[in-house]
Amino acid sequence: MKTANRVRPEKRPALSPSRCRPATSRVSNRGLSSSTANVSPSFPSGNSGRKNLTRGGAARCSSGYTPTRVAATTSPGTRTPASGPWSLSPAAVAEQGPQPELRRNPITGEWVIIAAGRGRRPHAPDRMPQKDQPDHECPFCPGREDQTPPEVCAFRDSDESDCPGWSARTIPNRFPILVSDAPGAGAGAAYSPDRQPALGASEVIIDTPVHDKPPWEVGLDQTVEMLKMYQERIVALREEKRTTYVHIIRNHLAGAASSLEHPHSQLFGLPFIPPTVDAELDGFARASLGLPGCVMCDMVEREEEATERVVAANDGFIAFCPFASRLPYETWIVPRRHQVRFEDCAELESFAGIIIQVMRGLKDGLDNPPFNYWIHTYPLRGETRPYHWHLEILPRLTVPGGLELGADVWVNIVAPEEAAARLGA
Amino acid sequence: MKTANRVRPEKRPALSPSRCRPATSRVSNRGLSSSTANVSPSFPSGNSGRKNLTRGGAARCSSGYTPTRVAATTSPGTRTPASGPWSLSPAAVAEQGPQPELRRNPITGEWVIIAAGRGRRPHAPDRMPQKDQPDHECPFCPGREDQTPPEVCAFRDSDESDCPGWSARTIPNRFPILVSDAPGAGAGAAYSPDRQPALGASEVIIDTPVHDKPPWEVGLDQTVEMLKMYQERIVALREEKRTTYVHIIRNHLAGAASSLEHPHSQLFGLPFIPPTVDAELDGFARASLGLPGCVMCDMVEREEEATERVVAANDGFIAFCPFASRLPYETWIVPRRHQVRFEDCAELESFAGIIIQVMRGLKDGLDNPPFNYWIHTYPLRGETRPYHWHLEILPRLTVPGGLELGADVWVNIVAPEEAAARLGA
């Protein structure tokens, strides 16, 4: 299980400023400013309406329901100075329109991000069909670092920044849905408990310098680099205090909402615990009662015994199609060792190894389907509740309809046992 | 507000068996059989894991996690005897494979429907691209009633069944995800608290006899007929006792998961309260505290005052893009008068009128986009909690990615105020 020491030592990321240089906006002290301080107490540890029942949630909803509109402004001066086709010119910043904000559904209590700047054009879809940009034009390729906003973090041997030589690189999202500062403190007057500036982090992680191959095709080392970058950013955001939960995802191909070909992940530093993780935290507490380990340790043990839903396994991890998979070929990768937080995982080679195996299974078994993956991990702070981090992969083979979207009831047309048989080596 | 009496009296549906003839499988007594009775107690009033915390949910999850597999069988004899391209031949029944079953996620406590019979072919997507079948081949068109399974219910002037002359017609879904009986009681032995036969109803409502125009284009009368059929089926399933919640949806165009051109809705009689409605019920209880009416009555009043998010309004109803819309152009149609259940609504002309207005806005403003709509109403039985039924419409302009699917955090790129301006007349 001690696989971490096989990683090339010279590539290990450090937390020193020289190798992981925060962008200007990220070292701002705004996280502790009065406007932010005013915002923070509004966010409970979870955003479920259920939780607010005993906290005066109703009063907040009622008083906070503000049908007036904020005259939103942009603050180009505090943003990305870089130029280039993908970076933000002042004109592009102006085009972005209003800053994103959070709005709370008064019935369910859930937060929605209104990012109107992403949809200025009529009919503009959030995610354009994926752009298969030739690598000589790709702003994510090495040598074109000046075409992106200044990097937030990069793994490279030199102390320079925004130059080639990196193995993984993080930049601010050009169309952020969560921003590190709120425009003009004056606008804050229109905010309310049900309407907040969308403060947080919205970053793009460029998984690999290679334009047309994801890390798991480039090899074990590159996959480990990508995972280290995930951890690096989570640890950095934990120290920033403002972010409550870090959600890291990858959208693979246009059918899964990817817009650029060059392999990249996205990171969202959220000021609340997302509903799905909130429900999982409640579920772990409930379902782990009376078990020797947590409910996920129990699942791992039972899946291993049953074997029929196991897709891949190695010393440190097991991948399986869960018994109650919501969609065809849904796959979870779970560390065997009980571990609450992904960023504490030292067995990254083992993790990378099983990711490679599962991705090969998807490519071979389902002809390179679009998919999304995300990491479910413990919130950055707070008391310790039962949890067991894991990665979830959802191939996108079907179109959800009114049953899924309107009732949150999922219909899976491929039994997980059949799915595992098809995906397994 | 008394608009209902403008409906042509000769077209009013009656609950008499001659005009609304239940199909054979629907009058079966299986709902009270021992196998069903064994199942029922496992379903709480809601399926949220949170609710089970004090009900021994952990013990159920642990003991009920059954990695063994049911040897599933089909029971063609009890199914649809009709023939025709869309109906179920015995061969087609055999091809359907295993009966659908419910499986519970041991962590969140939510139920998933495993309907492996819908995905027999490799890569078979749940929803094929919409089939623009010419009307001379369409099994939903009048004159081809023998090509569907026998109707569950139809509105026509004669006492005959499965013949032309109907204004709206309900048939069993050819690929049901919830079935009215479980195959072979013996198979029940493998079921457990976390694995149940998917008992319930899965029906197709043919909204209009006209092949290529939805009811709101055919006119007010036809839209009223469709809405009456929705009510009719809810009332019928309420009397059947087995179903806990009726979810009625419409998927419009292939981009919203529709598979057949002829305008049709779908009905799902669920044996549990779906998570979204469960969350709303909790939310209404929380957010209505201290308000003069319910939280929805409060929203209606405030939206009307603010006007900027209102899309349409008439005597009985208001349509608006909610303050915390999850997706661009999300629209809710809400009765002004406080009413818990949709099936109790007598103002169907007023409802039909605003549906027509909103649909015209979508067609003109967004160039006939794919969309889903669904009705959120109160569960069929149980104590009375605060609720206010409504219809939700979700145009499908964007592809959800890993933030939406993996965290249930929604990013809306069009501010609801802009959306309402575009959709409004």
How is this structure best summarized?
Two copies of one chain form a homodimer. With 425 residues, chain A is of the alpha+beta class.
SSE blueprint:
Two copies of one chain form a homodimer.
Chain A: H1 34-39, H2 57-64, H3 90-96, E1 101-104, E2 111-114, E3 153-156, E4 166-172, E5 195-197, E6 201-206, H4 215-218, H5 220-240, E7 245-252, E8 264-270, H6 275-287, H7 295-306, E9 310-313, E10 317-320, E11 331-335, H8 348-366, E12 371-376, E13 390-395, H9 402-407, E14 410-412, H10 416-423
Helix pairs in contact in A: 5-8
Rough shape of chain A? globular
CATH top level class name of the largest domain in chain A: Alpha Beta
Largest interface summary: A-B, 114 and 114 residues
List segments of chain A where confidence is low: pLDDT < 50 over at least 5 consecutive residues: 1-85, 87-94, 119-127
Question: Would you write up a description of this structure?
Answer:
The structure is a homodimer of 425-residue chains. In chain A, helix 5 crosses helix 8 (348-366). The longest helix of chain A is centred in the middle third of the chain and has 21 residues, at 220-240. The radius of gyration of chain A is 21 Å and the shape is globular. A 10-stranded antiparallel sheet of chain A has the order 3-4-6-8-7-12-13-11-10-9, with helices on both faces. A 3-stranded antiparallel sheet of chain A has the order 2-1-5, with no helix packed on it. Chain A has 2 domains: 9-273, HIT-like (HIT family, subunit A); 277-423, HIT family, subunit A, CATH 3.30.428. In chain A, a hairpin with a 3-residue loop joins strand 9 and strand 10 (317-320). The first copy, chain A, is of the alpha+beta class and 425 residues long. Helix content of chain A is 24%, strand content 17%. Chain A has helices spanning 34-39, 57-64, 90-96, 215-218, 220-240, 275-287, 295-306, 348-366, 402-407, 416-423; strands at residues 101-104, 111-114, 153-156, 166-172, 195-197, 201-206, 245-252, 264-270, 310-313, 317-320, 331-335, 371-376, 390-395, 410-412. Chain A contains 10 helices and 14 strands. The interface between A and B is large, with 114 and 114 residues.
